[in-house]
């Protein structure tokens, strides 16, 4: 079944009450008639809304969690695994996202190199460095959250696609020269605190391919591409003969207030946190550790009274990056979580983090199903989606008294 998407703009009212608010009503017969007509219209809208929900039925599932934890990536995997067209309808538009992601990545590295006073390997690359640093002002204009796009995850502020592509093509020699420079490579390896996207290496390694004039993003490119979600969007999938209504939300702090209108009648929640973020500060609050923010947010969701009967599934995501960080020895868990006294290996640290999440749950009877995930890996997600579907089905049957 094809997934359908509805964009719920964050300031959108589900019902338009404006006629009621637009005038006062006297007791005249004409006004009474008008008031009744409006009241009937509202009843009709509410009835239609209720009927639509009943007809659609199925399971209402929210994907929640802080920003950059992989929520939209999971949705892309669902489209690939269960959508008739996969990611085809978005492929062309992602070309621009990929180009912008690559430019942002090299800009972040160039800035990091300057801040850390790391010298370039080849002084002749100085010219390229300046070209890239000049990108800052331009890239702000072409912010990844404001490109024209038909994907509901991306708001529509139309910019000039050709101008973006031209800009990218002009930048390619500078990007290639800098990415090959040992100074930039050292910045990439050692400056773990710079705000660089996880997909930076993937796109910079692939620069020749993505710069081809007839380049079309592959599924993996789309899974790696990063676009902030601003508006809540609804997607319908049929998984193993069960209809799911899935909501993807924006995780930035300023956007969390728009989640609440979707909290009624939720059957299941996938809460996502990025384990790899244990040593990173929040983008919108640099004093706060990202994983601490995730724990606090999980606390407010798992103990929320509206989610008493909701199945909670926890995805501790980005285990590939987490594992790499531990293996490289570049970050110690105990430095960021002083209460952790174990060794810095994958097994002990994941047990610790899972325990920290479970500790947030005040109701000791509440089951939380945890998965350690690598959301950009389609093979792993295929297995996990089947497991999650089985759990949700079982819980659903149990709560309806059929099991
Ligand atoms: N290496 C790796 N990258 C991942 C993983 N999951 C997601 N990503 C990447 O992380 C970036 C952010 O993922 P998104 O899915 O956009 O994050 P989000 O939670 O939707 O973020 P908001 O929309 O801002 O709330 C993307 O570039 C993804 O490709 C993972 O498990 N491993
Ligand atoms: Mg998103």
UniProtKB/TrEMBL annotation:
Positions of Mg(2+) binding: 72, 229
PROSITE patterns, sorted: G_ALPHA
Pfam families registered for this protein in UniProt: G-alpha
Protein name: Guanine nucleotide-binding protein subunit alpha
Organism: Podila minutissima
SMART domains: G_alpha
Single biological process term from Gene Ontology: adenylate cyclase-modulating G protein-coupled receptor signaling pathway
Positions with a binding annotation for GTP: 68-73, 198-199, 223-229, 248-252, 317-320, 375
Gene Ontology molecular functions: G protein-coupled receptor binding; G-protein beta/gamma-subunit complex binding; GTP binding; GTPase activity; metal ion binding
Domain of life: Eukaryota
Keywords from the UniProt entry: GTP-binding, Magnesium, Metal-binding, Nucleotide-binding, Transducer
């Amino acid at each position: 079944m094809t997934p359908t998407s509805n964009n719920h703009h964050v300031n959108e009212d589900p019902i338009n009450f404006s006629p009621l608010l637009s005038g006062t009503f006297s007791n005249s017969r004409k006004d009474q008639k008008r008031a009744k007509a409006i009241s009937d219209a509202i009843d009709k809208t509410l009835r239609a809304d209720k009927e639509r929900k009943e007809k659609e039925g199925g399971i209402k599932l929210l994907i929640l969690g802080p920003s950059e934890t992989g929520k939209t990536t999971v949705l892309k995997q669902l489209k690939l695994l269960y959508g008739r067209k996969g990611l085809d309808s978005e492929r062309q538009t992602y070309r621009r996202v990929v180009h912008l992601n690559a430019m942002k990545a090299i800009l972040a590295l160039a800035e990091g190199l300057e801040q850390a006073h790391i010298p370039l390997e080849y002084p002749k690359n100085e010219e390229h460095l300046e070209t890239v640093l000049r990108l800052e002002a331009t890239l702000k204009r072409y912010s990844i959250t404001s490109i024209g796009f038909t994907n509901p995850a991306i708001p529509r502020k139309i910019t000039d696609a050709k101008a973006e592509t031209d800009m990218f093509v002009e930048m390619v020699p500078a990007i290639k020269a800098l990415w090959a420079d040992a100074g930039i490579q050292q910045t990439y390896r050692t400056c773990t605190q710079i705000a660089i996207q996880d997909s930076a290496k993937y796109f910079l390694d692939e620069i020749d391919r993505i710069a081809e004039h007839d380049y079309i993003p592959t599924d993996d490119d789309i899974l790696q591409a990063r676009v902030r979600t601003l508006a809540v969007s609804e997607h319908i999938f049929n998984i193993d003969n069960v209809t799911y209504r899935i909501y993807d939300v924006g995780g930035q702090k300023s956007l969390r207030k728009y989640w609440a209108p979707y909290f009624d009648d939720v059957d299941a929640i996938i809460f996502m946190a990025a384990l790899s973020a244990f040593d990173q500060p929040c983008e919108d609050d640099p004093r706060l550790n990202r994983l601490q923010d995730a724990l606090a947010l999980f606390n407010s969701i798992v103990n929320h009274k509206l989610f008493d009967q909701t199945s909670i599934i926890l995805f501790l995501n980005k285990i590939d990056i987490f594992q790499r960080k531990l293996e490289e020895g570049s970050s110690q868990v105990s430095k960021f979580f002083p209460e952790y006294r174990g060794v810095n290996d994958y097994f002990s640290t994941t047990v610790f983090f899972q325990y920290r999440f479970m500790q947030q749950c005040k109701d000791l009877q509440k089951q939380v199903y945890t998965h350690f995930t690598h959301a950009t890996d389609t093979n792993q997600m295929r297995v996990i989606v089947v497991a999650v579907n089985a759990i949700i089905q079982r819980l659903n049957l149990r709560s309806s008294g059929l099991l």
